[in-house]
Write a structure and sequence with these properties.
It is built from 20 helices and 24 strands. The protein is α+β, with helices and mostly antiparallel strands. The strands form five sheets. A six-stranded antiparallel beta sheet has the order 3-2-1-6-5-4, sandwiched between helices. Strands 14-13-12-17-16-15 form a six-stranded antiparallel beta sheet, sandwiched between helices. A five-stranded antiparallel beta sheet has the order 8-7-11-10-9, sandwiched between helices. The longest helix has 75 residues.
Length: 676
């Protein structure tokens, strides 16, 4: 027998020694059993440690349940009862928290097993295995939190493709490459100049391969939907590889496909690892799969490192190598730290346990991974270290998400700083515009005052001269007296119009004060002012309890004086006016679609002024709140056509809105909405 054959036999013997007990120990699993008659729990040292017990490998179930977290105990009990009664087909699989009986430590554990029933239906055995999944749960929680935070971020503005191992490229609609990243050029073994603008056939794709991709590109253009596939291709240096690819449409502003973006990932190692995993021993492989870890053991006497297929795939090495070979694929920057941690764990005064993270570069394909490993030194009876058992987790995705998140945070911070600068400039421009607006309003008020004064002075002279002429009525004919009265009537209407214009100008340019105003007091004051008209028309006015609002009492008085004045003025002939003022509260989301208050509020007061007057056709609703708009002739009803425009301006000044509903001859309802 030569040296190679001896090594092969030694390896086979070593594999034979990796029995179930070794597999359980390496995987960190414990064994337990519940006696269905006595409810005594028997377990090994590993299970006992999961409950933080220093001793007692046999305990009553009621004592065991006391060390389960109170929030989980009821669920665990219910699951146990379902297993014991056969409701769950005898399958038991529960993950929950324990509170260490002696050390007080909180742990996440997973207990899974099976109940066995005799043909009579009697339970005769209930047993299984247990595992500490604290780190896995914490990793899952961290990963979930990281994923949620990543989902809240907006998409990355520009993909960084230069250093990614994925192949990234862009086709035009003529199947020609307009972009290819470095990884794709390396796969082809070509330069940028030799690739860009070339078709698939010109690059070197076989005809069947090129035709398949051209059909897929046509499908993406036609459907504007992404397409995914898998194909083999000869890598320029690595040989035949298996690739997973996605073609996605790039749409222009008109929504048409202007290009096709593609990403391709080398999944050869994944496929090879899947093939190897299917060849493993069923029982041991199922335990490893449940644990979702890679495992390894180091024989300190031979310095051999035996890896599970998963770990071997990560390293790109055979399953059995020496320690030095495995260390060689660890990133150089991490090697010294890994060696120091391993040496400290071997020290005589140490616990023998270690846990650390490091990066590895796959020896076959150069792929980088971030791994977390934990291990435990195993000692013989003499206290000498003989073996190291450990597990490995691939945390590449978590670290990648973390790095991406940090980059996004930095990018968003820079964008926020730029936005703040723009906001400062905008605020300065707004302050300047506000100052101009204030000066404009001041000028408008001065103009309105001067204009009204200059216009009213001639009108007063007309009235005075008219009165003087009427004093000589004995010398005037009837027609001449009629001319004088018509002149004075026109002058009176002109004076009223000037007054209304001045009122509208003041309300349009002045916000007024913000004080708590009782609308009942406002209406009461208006009714006092209008008491002569109310008496002349024999009107009946009913006023409900109205709210108090923040606003200007003077402007609110003008609002209700115009609304009530119109209700009294536009009454039907020979029909006494009947007016009702009522109030409601309305949620902001329940406002009619046509109502647009000038200030957003969760709740609004709705005040209705309802009358039984002549009404109007609602097709004129958009006109009645405009200045100088009248729906009736001057001979029917007096007025300037400014009153409702004043109402609309007052309501807008108070953050609200006004509308109306009516039918000719059926009265009208004017509705005011004010923020509550």
């Amino acid at each position: 027998m030569n040296g190679d054959e001896k090594t092969s036999d030694s390896t086979k013997n070593l594999y034979e020694q990796l029995n179930i007990q070794f597999a359980l120990q390496v995987s960190g699993l414990g064994v337990w059993e519940l006696d269905p008659k006595t409810y005594q729990v028997r377990w090994d040292d590993r299970c006992r440690e999961l409950f933080g017990l220093v001793k007692d490998n046999v305990l009553p179930y009621q004592q065991v349940i006391q060390h389960i977290h109170p929030e989980d105990a009821e669920r665990v009990n219910q699951a146990l009862q379902q297993v014991l009664t056969g409701e769950s087909d005898g399958i038991y699989d529960q993950t929950y928290r324990t509170i260490g009986a002696d050390d007080g430590q909180l742990r996440w554990v997973r207990f899974y097993g099976r109940a066995y029933f005799a043909q009579t239906g009697d339970l005769y055995r209930f047993a299984g295995v247990a595992q500490d999944v604290t780190q896995q749960v914490l990793d899952q929680q961290q990963e979930a939190a990281t994923r949620q935070q990543a989902q809240r971020q907006q998409r990355i503005y520009e993909a960084i493709t230069a250093s990614t191992p994925d192949l990234i490229y862009v086709f035009d609609r003529s199947y020609r490459f307009t972009y290819a990243n470095r990884a794709l050029l390396e796969m082809w073994g070509k330069s940028w100049e030799d690739s860009i603008g070339k078709s698939l056939l010109e690059i070197g794709y076989e005809p069947w391969h090129a035709q398949m991709h051209e059909r897929e590109i046509d499908q993406v253009v036609a459907t504007k939907q992404s397409i995914r596939g898998e194909v083999s291709f000869i890598h320029a240096t690595l040989g035949k590889r298996i690739y997973d690819y996605v073609f996605a449409p790039v749409l222009n502003e008109q929504g048409e496909v202007e290009a096709i973006a593609g990403t391709t990932r080398d999944i050869t190692d994944i496929r090879q690892a899947q093939d190897r995993l299917q060849e493993r021993e069923a029982f041991l492989q199922s335990i490893i799969d449940l644990a979702e870890v890679g495992i390894y053991t180091i024989d300190l006497s031979t310095n051999q490192l035996i890896k599970s297929p998963r770990v071997a795939g990560w390293y790109g090495l055979p399953e059995v190598t020496d320690v030095a070979t495995s260390v060689s694929v660890i990133e150089v920057s991490d090697q010294e730290r890994v060696f120091q941690t391993y040496t400290e764990a071997l020290a005589s005064n140490a616990s023998g346990y270690f846990n650390l993270e490091y990066g590895v570069v796959n020896a076959l394909n150069g792929q980088r991974r971030v791994l977390r490993t934990s291990g435990q030194i195993v000692y013989n009876r003499e206290g000498q270290p003989v073996r190291v058992n450990g597990s490995v987790h691939d945390i590449t995705s978590q670290r990648s998400i973390q790095l991406t998140l940090e980059q996004q945070v930095q990018q968003r911070t820079e964008e926020l700083a730029a936005a703040n600068e723009e906001l400062a400039v905008t605020n300065e421009e707004l302050e300047e515009a506000n100052a101009l607006l204030v000066r404009s309003n001041d000028n408008l008020q001065q103009f309105a005052y001067v204009a009204s004064h200059d216009l009213q002075e001639p009108l007063r002279k007309i009235q005075q001269f008219g009165d003087l002429l009427k004093g000589r009525q004995n010398s005037l004919s009837r027609d001449e007296l009629g001319y004088i009265e018509r002149m004075q009537s026109a002058a009176s209407r002109m004076a009223i119009l000037i007054r209304d214009i001045l009122d509208f100008s003041r309300i349009a340019t002045q916000r007024g004060s913000d004080k708590l105003v009782s609308l009942n007091e406002v209406v009461e004051q208006v009714l006092t002012t209008l008491e002569l008209v109310i008496a002349e028309t024999n009107a009946e006015i009913n006023v409900d309890l109205l709210p108090s609002v923040l606003g200007d009492a003077s402007q609110l008085t003008q609002l209700f004086q115009n609304l009530l004045g119109n209700a009294l003025k536009f009454h039907r002939p020979s029909v006494a006016p009947l007016i009702h003022i009522r109030s409601y509260t309305v949620e902001g989301g329940a406002l009619p679609a046509s109502v647009k208050p000038t200030r957003v509020s969760k709740v609004y007061y709705q005040i209705d002024v309802v009358d039984n007057g002549v009404g109007f056709d609602e097709k004129y609703l958009d006109r009645i709140f405009q200045v100088f708009q009248r729906l009736h002739g001057k001979t029917q009803f007096a007025g300037t056509g400014i009153g409702l425009a004043i109402c609309e301006r007052v309501v807008a000044n108070h953050g609200g809105a006004i509308t109306a509903s009516s039918q000719p001859g059926q009265g009208a309802t004017f509705t005011v909405y004010l923020p509550a």
